[in-house]
Design goal:
The chain has 254 residues and is an alpha+beta fold. The protein has two domains: 1-40; 81-253, no CATH class. The protein is 22% helix and 29% strand. It contains three helices and 13 strands; from the N terminus they run H-E-E-E-H-E-E-E-E-E-E-H-E-E-E-E. Strands 3, 5, 6, 8, 10, 11, 12 and 13 form an eight-stranded antiparallel beta sheet that branches. The chain has a three-stranded antiparallel beta sheet with strand order 2-1-9, with no helix packed on it.
């Protein structure tokens, strides 16, 4: 009986040991399988990455001494400042002609430049150019030259656009043309049929007589100076000699 009990105990112990080994092996197999499955799952999963934005360095243009050629002229599409084919009868329309080409203030300086009227900024101390901001004005003291004429032609510049512009790209708000001492005068035409050489009587017939405060007489030099004005925004001035008729005119439009 004792031997049989010992054999039974020994058999039970061996069975327990074998079962334990099997359980351990199963646990190892399960652990390895789980790790392998987890690894495959990670490899198969799409990873969403935040895209990297390439930084582009934007160069801000320096408008101090440059011209913004992409800015549209505010007069583009505005037919009120387009040069007329025939001049008005009313001087308040600010139209005139020079050597057969008609203009209407405000007009681009380039229109005069295309007819050979130029100036050198260096003569005024600005050899590197000159920038006008919006609505800035340069007084009508810029003398233009043309190799075909020696009349005095002086203009004033303004910038009618919304951004800074080179003066050469700006508009004319003031012009003064004087043939009084010219050997090679320009031909000019004015509203209502007045032109260089028109008489005092023709001027009065065309525009009427200005107020006494707007008339000046030089008996020594033999001329009248008539100034017509519309409120305080438009001024039209004529110089009329007794013997030579109209020799000069000017427009200022504020």
């Amino acid at each position: 009986m004792a031997d049989n009990n010992k054999s039974s105990i020994k058999g039970s112990t061996i069975a327990i040991i074998i079962l334990s080994i099997v359980v351990v092996i199963l646990l190892i197999v399960i652990a390895v399988g789980a790790g392998f499955f987890l690894l495959n799952s990670m490899n198969d999963t799409e990873v969403s990455e935040t895209p990297v934005v390439n930084e582009v360095e934007t160069e801000v243009p320096d408008t101090t001494n440059t011209v913004d050629t992409n800015v549209a002229n505010t007069n583009m599409g505005d037919t009120s400042n387009v040069a007329p084919t025939t001049l008005s009868t009313d001087w308040k329309n600010t139209e005139f002609g020079l050597n057969g080409v008609n203009y209407k203030i405000y007009f681009d300086y380039a229109d005069l430049q295309n007819q050979g009227w130029t100036f050198d900024l260096a003569d005024y101390g600005y050899s590197n150019g000159y920038i006008l901001n919006q609505n800035d004005k340069v007084s009508g003291t810029i003398n233009l030259e043309n190799p075909n004429y020696d009349a005095r032609v002086a203009v004033g510049f303004t910038n009618t656009s919304s951004t800074p512009k080179d003066i050469l790209k700006c508009q004319i708000w003031s012009i003064d043309v004087d043939n009084g001492f010219a050997d090679k005068p320009v031909n000019f035409e004015l509203p209502n049929g007045i032109h260089n050489g028109s008489t005092l009587q023709e001027v009065i017939a065309a525009y009427g007589e200005p107020d006494e405060d707007n008339k000046y007489r030089s008996d020594d030099l033999g001329y009248w100076q008539y100034t017509y004005q519309d409120e305080y925004s438009k001024y039209f001035k004529l110089t009329i000699y007794d013997d030579k008729g109209v020799t000069a005119f000017s427009y200022d439009v504020y």
